[in-house]
Write a sequence for this structure.
């Protein structure tokens, strides 16, 4: 038992602790067959984060066992989320299986834009004149939008200049087409990366496995959303009741979870 616990007699407890906690401790003591009146109880206030307001979570040492005592279900959920966030910070997101984890991978907007620009430069920038026109035409057939309409007009003008053997105009139009096509391609890659990094890097490009993708510097895990989903899936007791995995509904609506 940690020395930071404070000892309370039953009278001290009633005078000092909030009413909900007193009711919960007495209910818990009855379940554990411990007489608070005779033996007292050790309690530690757990002011945790902004997720849990003051006097809403206590650690209770009772009858040789340690419990988290939490004011209500909503606070218990928030405490469990915080616990999972701490687990991720300490051990990494690899705690979760891939099929669950991939739903919470994301790329920051600035990184998504940079990736889009780099991909466009590497692809469109290296195309020779003939491949450029062919790929730009293919792109225009498969996409829509105001900028795509503009690309189609430039391609039409290029075709007219080609028929007229107007090489100076063709050269100028080639630069316009390359710049616009590169911009459109960058926008598309940026959107794909932002919306579904796994779909783009793993499934479409085949550039990484999921394990490899998680390790890339541009990938981040939405830890808060991941933690909330994990608690919703497995329940608060899975993360808070490390001793027996069981949550106890106590008098007055409070919850207790044995962790030692």
């Amino acid at each position: 038992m940690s020395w930071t616990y404070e000892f309370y007699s039953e009278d001290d407890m009633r005078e000092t602790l909030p009413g909900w906690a007193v009711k919960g401790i007495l209910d818990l003591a009855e379940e554990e067959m411990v007489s608070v009146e005779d033996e007292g109880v050790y309690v530690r206030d757990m002011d945790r984060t902004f997720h849990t307001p003051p006097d809403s979570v206590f650690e209770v040492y009772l009858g040789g066992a340690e419990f988290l005592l939490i004011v209500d279900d909503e606070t218990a959920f928030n405490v469990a989320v915080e616990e999972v966030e701490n687990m991720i910070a300490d051990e990494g997101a690899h705690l979760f299986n891939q099929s669950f984890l991939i739903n919470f991978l994301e790329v920051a907007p600035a990184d998504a834009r940079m990736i889009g620009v780099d991909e466009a430069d590497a692809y469109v920038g290296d195309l020779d004149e003939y491949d450029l026109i062919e790929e730009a035409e293919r792109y225009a057939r498969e996409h829509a939008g105001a900028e795509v309409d503009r690309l189609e007009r430039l391609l039409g003008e290029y075709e007219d200049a080609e028929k007229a053997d107007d090489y100076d105009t063709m050269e100028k139009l080639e630069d316009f087409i390359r710049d616009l096509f590169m911009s459109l391609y960058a926008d598309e890659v940026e959107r794909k990366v932002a919306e579904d990094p796994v779909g783009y890097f793993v499934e479409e490009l085949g550039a990484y496995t999921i394990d490899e993708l998680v390790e890339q510097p541009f990938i981040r895990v939405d830890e808060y959303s991941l933690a909330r989903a994990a608690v919703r899936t497995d329940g608060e007791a899975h993360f808070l009741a490390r001793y027996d995995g069981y949550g106890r509904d106590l008098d007055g609506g409070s919850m207790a979870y044995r962790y030692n």
User: Anything to note?
Assistant: The radius of gyration is 30 Å.
